[in-house]
From TrEMBL:
Binding site for AMP: 418
Name of the protein described by the UniProt record: Bifunctional NAD(P)H-hydrate repair enzyme
Cofactor: Mg(2+); K(+)
Function: Catalyzes the epimerization of the S- and R-forms of NAD(P)HX, a damaged form of NAD(P)H that is a result of enzymatic or heat-dependent hydration. This is a prerequisite for the S-specific NAD(P)H-hydrate dehydratase to allow the repair of both epimers of NAD(P)HX. Bifunctional enzyme that catalyzes the epimerization of the S- and R-forms of NAD(P)HX and the dehydration of the S-form of NAD(P)HX at the expense of ADP, which is converted to AMP. This allows the repair of both epimers of NAD(P)HX, a damaged form of NAD(P)H that is a result of enzymatic or heat-dependent hydration.
Gene name as annotated: nnrD
Annotated YjeF C-terminal domain residues: 207-476
Length: 484
């Protein structure tokens, strides 16, 4: 099963792996044609009703694979209104053939005739809301025909994620969906086929730039909606919580509060004017602070806890007591991880151990790549939380899914890079589920490391790297460009 959003991620990851979207469209078109051949014999009449997005583009490609059929392609709208380059290129390629292809400028002129097969390629995963004109009228006309209806990816008007169908949705006999099943198709009264369109396995197995597509923000959002984070850290150390805090800001969070022992509050505050620091009496985190922490954590998108806390018995007891009462979202790192294996909590956790911490938590993961991934998955399942096992390759698992992050470099063994990952992950929890936030964060963190390496080689430090986080999150950042 794959959601429309994740399909977009995987599709962009595939592009980064050298399989461009236009190539996927060619495969999609081929798959649609194969189903048409399956349901209607050669010589049958086939009308492809196409929208202006990539769903229509799939059908422009399909038409070229239907030699031997009486093919007619109808584009709903003007040629100039085709929304994507690849669909436009396929329309142009189609016009070079002698296939009957026409743009229907006025929906009142739409005459579908009486074909044996109708291919519904009006709208796929790009739909928002009920069908609008001219698609609404066209869907009504398609439903009135006796033809066998083959829908491309999803019947137009049906939401591929929820299965919710607009009142005027297309009623399809067959659906050719791509790459993987879609949650919204399972309840349909139609024959649903999943076509392999050549997306490389690595596009799902590994992180990639496609995850950036999940981070776009609502232009009408208000302060706090793009991340309201609490960092709990510091005591014996001050740099770690400062890095997590800055990373959360740099990854897009609107508000980041930092709770730290009073003894280091002033030091922490001097790290930057953006920091909002709350002092907790004493020089290390203690059980007597738990009530205040719970108050501070109320309503936050995520609490990032651990960086620089130290391993004082009282501190670990405080972390344990906090989680026994806390039922929100947290990212747990460094010393706080010691408290996790035997805590009973209703919170949703992302735990980010390095190799040593993973072992201390009780996971004896193998070195061999596939076995290590399986071991981390098993451990996450046992724990009931998301685990990010950091290393030369980060392994992220929620106990079911596993995604591996290969982006980053050995310069990142410098202290503090893990604190940055913690902050980024907490920031992403504002809008993403724990697993997806963790996966996206490992890619952005690794990319920031690569950008820092490019400028300074192995001599970069975590404070250099945290400044690269915003550039790592931009799709147009060129690794070879040093004008940043
Ligand atoms: N890996 C992949 O995901 C692949 C997908 N392919 C195909 O592409 C479509 C999705 O294409 P996209 O361009 O994103 O969207 P659509 O074609 O579904 O529609 C966009 C188009 O429709 C307009 N629109 C939106 N909502 C409505 C509405 N309610 N009524 C009328 N019009 C609407 C919008 O303005 C746009 O112009 C996917 O389903 C696959 O078929 C690939 O080719 C292969 C890889
Ligand atoms: K469709």
């Amino acid at each position: 099963m794959i959601s429309a959003k994740m399909m977009g991620v995987v599709d962009e990851n595939a592009e980064a792996l050298g399989v461009p979207r236009k190539q996927l469209m060619e495969s999609s078109g081929n798959a649609v044609a194969r189903v048409v051949r399956d349901v209607a014999e050669s010589g049958s009449s086939v009308t492809l009703v196409c929208g202006r997005g990539n769903n229509g583009g799939d059908a422009f490609a399909a038409a070229r694979f239907l030699e031997g059929y009486d093919v007619r392609v109808l584009l709903l709208g003007r040629e100039e209104s085709i929304t994507t380059d690849i669909a436009r290129e396929n329309w142009a390629a189609l016009k070079e053939t002698d296939i009957d292809a026409e743009a229907v400028r006025d929906s009142r002129d739409l005459d579908l005739g009486d074909p044996d097969v109708v291919v519904d390629a009006m709208l796929g995963t790009g739909i928002t809301g009920d069908l609008r004109e001219p698609e609404a009228t066209a869907a009504g006309s398609i439903n009135e025909l006796d033809a066998t209806v083959v829908a491309v990816d999803v019947p137009s008007g049906v939401d591929a994620d929820t299965g919710e169908a607009a009142g005027n949705a297309v009623d399809a006999d067959h659906v050719v969906t791509f790459h993987d099943e879609k949650p919204g198709l399972s309840a349909l009264d139609a024959d649903v086929r999943v076509a392999d369109i050549g997306i490389p396995e690595a596009a799902e197995r590994f992180t990639g730039p496609g995850y950036l597509s999940l981070l776009s923000r609502d232009p009408n959002s208000h302060k706090g909606q793009n991340g309201d984070v609490l960092v709990v850290g510091g005591g014996p150390f001050t740099g770690a919580p400062a890095l997590s805090t800055e990373a959360a800001f740099r990854a897009g969070a609107d508000l980041v509060n930092t709770a730290t022992p009073e003894s280091v509050k002033t030091v922490l505050q001097t790290y930057g004017e953006d920091l909002m620091v709350r002092g907790l009496p004493g020089d290390h985190l203690k059980p007597e602070h738990v009530d205040e922490l719970l108050d501070l954590a109320e309503g936050k998108h995520a609490v990032a806890i651990g960086p620089g806390l130290g391993t004082d018995e009282e501190t670990l007891a405080a972390v344990r007591q906090f989680f026994e009462q806390f039922d929100g979202n947290a990212v747990v790192d460094a010393d706080a991880l010691h408290a996790i294996p035997d805590v009973d909590t209703d919170a949703d956790l992302v735990c980010t151990p390095n190799g040593h911490e993973l072992e201390e938590m009780g996971c004896d993961a193998a070195d061999e790549r596939d076995q290590r991934a399986e071991d981390v998955r098993g451990f996450a399942e046992e724990l009931g939380h998301v685990v990010v096992a950091k290393g030369p390759e980060d392994i992220v698992s929620d106990g079911d899914r596993v995604v591996v992050n290969r982006v980053g470099n050995s310069g990142m063994t410098v202290g503090g890079t893990g604190d940055i990952l913690t902050g980024i992950t907490a920031s992403f929890r504002a809008t993403l589920d724990p697993f997806t936030a963790a996966v996206a964060a490992t890619w952005v963190n690794g990319r920031a490391g690569d950008l820092a390496y490019e400028k300074r080689g192995n001599g970069f430090v975590a404070s250099d790297m945290v400044e690269e986080v915003p550039y790592a999150m931009r799709r147009d950042t060129d690794l070879a460009d040093d004008t940043r």
